[in-house]
């Protein structure tokens, strides 16, 4: 399953890496790719949307599914 979540506050490649690492730490995520220019992250896997948002927010960014 593929899902895109909105992520606000990314301003550099390091931010993208932080968001990707946070998402990949969620159970059920197979891969994650963040894009600061789109203010979004694409996630592959069957993780719960609320868990994805919580992981990104815990990493210091605003997110919504």
From TrEMBL:
CDD domains: HMA
Record GO terms (molecular function): metal ion binding
Protein name: HMA domain protein
Domain of life: Archaea
Annotated HMA domain residues: 1-64
């Amino acid at each position: 399953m593929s899902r895109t979540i909105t992520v606000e506050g990314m301003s550099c490649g390091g931010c993208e890496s932080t968001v990707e690492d946070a998402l990949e730490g969620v159970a059920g995520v197979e891969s994650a790719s963040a894009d600061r220019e789109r203010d979004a992250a694409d996630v592959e896997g069957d993780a719960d949307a609320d868990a994805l948002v919580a992981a990104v927010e815990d990493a210091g960014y605003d997110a919504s599914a």
